[in-house]
């Protein structure tokens, strides 16, 4: 019998558990949940990818989706990350361009998330994001940039 469907069913049922139960379970196993809070083009993807190469660490997503939306933390996404069979026995790190809103701060406190705020010199980040928009994509959570507007600059 394949145990994956049972694990998935159990994980889905556990999402409805109180956060305290989930945190207690992870704490007993000495597992950490970390949020790398940063602004775009601050080197956060690079840092997170290096941390997830360490033994016992896995990437997590604390937001339900990306694209043109704020990366506001979401309870269900945090719980899915914590309960995922691939991450259940690992420390997890999420990297998001988020603000310290009341909602996010309450989830950070409720789920005992350690926050690392990544900073980069503003002019450095501005040059990096300009290069990103020129070479890659203007699609992201920071702003909507029409290609015609970029050509005019």
Brief sketch in words of this structure:
The protein has 7 helices and 4 strands; from the N terminus they run ααβαβαβαβαα.
Q: How would you characterize the overall build of this protein?
A:
α4 links the parallel β2 (about 55-60) and β3. The protein has helices at about 5-15, 20-30, 45-50, 75-85, 100-110, 120-135, 145-150, and strands spanning about 35-40, 55-60, 90-95, 115-120. The protein has one domain (about 5-120). It has about 150 residues and is of the alpha/beta class. It starts with a helix and ends with a helix. The radius of gyration is 18 Å and the shape is elongated.
Are there runs of 5+ residues with pLDDT below 50, and where?
A: none
For the biggest sheet, the summary is: 4 strands, parallel
SS element count, helices: 7
The total count of strands amounts to: 4
What strand line-up does the widest sheet have?
2-3-1-4
Sheet/helix structural class = alpha/beta
Q: Quickly count the domains.
A: 1
Report helical residue fraction.
40-55%
Return the string of H and E elements.
HHEHEHEHEHH
First-to-last CA distance: 61 Å
